[in-house]
Amino acid sequence: MQGWPELGCALWQLVVLVSFSQTEEPTCVQIGDPEIAQLSQDGDIVLGGIFYFHSKAFDYSLSLFYQLTCRPLVNLKSSLNFREFQFAQTMLFAIEEINNSTDLLPGVSLGYNIYDTCGSIPKTIKVALALNNENGNTSSNSDTPCTKPISHFATCACLSDKTKYPSFLRTIPSDYYQSRALAQLVKHFGWTWVGAVRTNDDYGNNGMATFTETAEQLGVCLEYSVSFFRTDPIEKIQKVIETIQASTSKVIVAFVSHLDMDVLIHEMSNYNLTGYQWVGSESWISDSQIAVVDKNHVLDGAIGVSIPNTHVSGLREFILDVRPLRSLNNDLYKEFWETLFSCKFKQEKSDENYRECTGQEDLTGVENSFTDMSLMPIFNNVYKGVYAVAHALHEILGCDETCNKNVQLDPLTVRCAEGEMSNITDAVTCVRCPPESWSNERRDACVKKEAVFLSYNEIMGILLTTAALFGTCVTAIVTIIFYRNRTTPLVRANNSELSFLLLFSLTLCFLCSLTFIGQPSKWSCMLRHTAFGITFVLCLSCVLGKTMVVLMAFKATLPGSSMMKWFGATQQRLSVLGFTIVQVIICILWLSISPPFPSKNFEEFKEKIILECALGSALGFWSVLGYIGLLAVLCFIFAFLARKLPDNFNEAKFITFSMLIFCAVWITFIPAYVSSPGNFSVAVEIFAILASTFGLLICIFIPKCYIMLLKPEKNTKKHMMGKGPPKTF
């Protein structure tokens, strides 16, 4: 179950070969002899299968790819692989079922061409090309490829990359999940110091890479990680075993194919390697033949993951019913019969150690890898693969009572995925569009994405701008009212200097929200967050100063108290300046080290580009917000302490309420800001600025304006003093 071009258990593919009319097709000329299918049957539509019936008997020249051929078997000790023969039988079983079905592909017969790769990777590639090109023309001077869509059975996570393997489908999960599961399994048993062995191919290397990454995240350390391939020199395999012997870890994670495990187990029989805990991948952990060859019980107690067990009705009986094979004049079936029953047919008998085959043998009492049905889960994957192709063909052909055996097709098109395009008919691969483009509906061109940002022209931008300007105007009106009544007791009692400074800072808060609207630029990105941070700190510094004035004023009425001496007008100005300078320093550091900058967000929406301001330094942004939050909490605490002081008009009560609103807005802002996509996060930040600013303006100043305009009789020193002790500010 290894990835292409791995040849481990059950590497196979289905290729749809159909006839279609074409004109002026580029001529392709095959180099070398055509491949001959070991098993074949004619049909309206032919499915192709690749299996390695022989895992050792192959002979080829590496320099001449087109001359790859399997070596004819000349002795009884053949390398016939019963396991692969079972897979091929499963494919034939599914095809027979479909051909006998009246519901699926009625009137259309399926045939097959099944090839033997002999366990050779180059041979597998040659056979795959032969299948893809109907075993005909495979070389061309034209740029037009001679390939058609294929799908094959494998688990390598590398095959999930649709940009490289757009036509690949599978009926088994990717090794990505198995590798993570193995890491979780190792962690579950508390094994934190392990060794790793892998097949040196895509299956082993990709699987082990994912395992290693996950294991490190879980706190599992690898003492060593070694690789080998079954065709490596014996010295290299011995070196792998010596590495295991020299190690201190007693747990070995083996991400290897069953063929490679066979080789490793055979060589380990010469070493004393018992006492190790093996953790295996599905390729060998569920293979009963591995246990058979493990004569020294090296793998006793091995654990791992396997494909879930399943049952295909009638399949076991079909595979084990070998009687129909006797009448077939096929070299592969003849070899299968001789190997299965350990005999030789008379005309080929050359070794007196073997009895003569009669053709009447049966499986009664025979126990070997062919009669072992432990790989039924893999058989089921082959079975599902055939049916998947059949159902796809059924949909394509639109089969109903009008279907007939002479059905003809147009080439099948591989439709590009979203974000990809191809303007070549029947192309196998697609081209991914550039980041600033997206594929059109037809997937034959890339169109430029729409760039979006919070602008003054859209409804949300207009509403937020209107709210900001309205707040600015209201603040200006309040300032005028306070200025006209600056000599009255109500204005003077609440520290008129801080009140005017607070109104000025509130105006800046309303106006700074406008910097968040419009297309982001280098300067607007730096201005929006720093201006917001500094103006809000100035605002809260004034509120904190006013709250402390209320507390100090009442403390100053106690006999012998000199509180106001230590918090007079000069100290109030210095406190506001000091609090604000701290924020200015934070902003300067932020802008100096990693300032905000305009960026393009391609992730939130597939067909749009979000123009936004990246924070630069997230620490800088959250430091600015954190300092604002600190001052807000201090304001709330001081105001809360002063809320019950005797006074007919105690400003601390209103400051307390305004700080409750302020804190509620900004606590709600954080999750809303983080979870809002694209330019909605900007709108959320503007809303938080406006809501908190309106809260301060309304709670602190509107009650005073109400008295000054509608209840002037309460704007007197006598009313302000009430029954409480006399106060001076």
Automatic annotation (TrEMBL):
CDD domains: 7tmC_V2R_pheromone (cd15283). One of its GO terms (molecular function) is G protein-coupled receptor activity. The chain crosses the membrane at residues 459-483, 498-518, 530-554, 574-593, 621-642, 654-674, 686-710. One of its GO terms (cellular component) is plasma membrane. It comes from the Eukaryota. It is a multi-pass membrane protein. It holds the Pfam family ANF_receptor. The keyword Signal applies. It is found in: Cell membrane. InterPro entries: ANF_lig-bd_rcpt (IPR001828), GPCR_3 (IPR000337), GPCR_3_9-Cys_sf (IPR038550), GPCR_3_C (IPR017978), GPCR_3_Ca_sens_rcpt-rel (IPR000068), GPCR_3_CS (IPR017979), Peripla_BP_I (IPR028082). Keywords: Cell membrane, G-protein coupled receptor, Glycoprotein, Membrane, Receptor, Signal, Transducer, Transmembrane, Transmembrane helix. Residues 1-23 form the signal peptide. The keyword Glycoprotein applies. This is Extracellular calcium-sensing receptor-like. It comes from Poecilia latipinna (sailfin molly). The lineage of its organism: Eukaryota, Metazoa, Chordata, Craniata, Vertebrata.
